[in-house]
Design brief:
Length: 199
């Protein structure tokens, strides 16, 4: 690279973002340099603040700036249902449709036998602890994606929970195989919740 070090480094940083190749990173870096000082300051400040001020809810694992998160500390929500998702983006997708009023549990990953990711490598133990400690819960809805890993995770959870007498359901197959909850449209998502099936 023949760029001065500061811009070369900036390009390198942008290129680390998902979906950003070196060409786009270069374009973004040059764009940033052309921005007003004030805008660049805000940008840098927001990056740092997001990293510094956000944490994971100690109860559900959702991304939050207050612990417990706003959902876990909301008494008006249905405390008898937990919806299990892969990551925080899925929580946002569900909240957007405003039809689900229970609690969540964020796994931060999926069990992946192919990649050597086991139950202990994701935020699963805490779900089991919650179920033991919070006796109000009578249904766990598994909303992992319908990929092989999503299915492996769903099967594992239902195998562990069912003997404990907890009703375990799975979102209906309104979602296409391999589709992402994060990108599902609201009608599809709503139908998937309404038509969930017991495992
Ligand atoms: Zn929470």
């Amino acid at each position: 690279m023949l760029y001065p070090t500061p811009i070369a480094k900036l390009i390198e940083s942008f290129a680390k973002l998902p979906g950003i190749g070196i060409k786009t990173a270069t374009r973004l870096a040059f764009y940033t340099i052309g921005m007003k000082d004030e805008e660049v300051n805000d940008f840098a400040k927001n990056l740092l603040a997001a990293k510094r001020e956000l944490t994971y809810c100690s109860i559900c694992g959702n991304l939050t700036d207050v612990d417990p998160c706003n959902i876990c500390s909301d008494d008006s929500r249905d405390q008898s249902i937990i919806l299990v998702v892969e990551d925080s983006k899925d929580v946002s997708a569900m909240e957007k449709i405003q039809e689900y009023h229970g609690l969540y549990h964020v796994l931060h990953g999926l069990i992946s036998p192919m990649n050597g990711v086991g139950p202990d490598d994701i935020n699963l133990k805490k779900l089991l602890t919650r179920l033991q400690e919070e006796s109000d819960i009578n249904e766990v809805i598994i909303a992992t994606n319908t990929t092989a890993d999503g299915e492996a995770t769903s099967m594992y959870i239902s195998r562990v929970l069912k003997p404990a007498g907890i009703k375990v359901t799975r979102l209906a197959r309104g979602l296409a195989v391999g589709s992402d909850i994060e990108y599902a449209d609201e009608v599809t998502l709503l139908r998937a919740i309404e038509n969930r099936t017991e495992l």
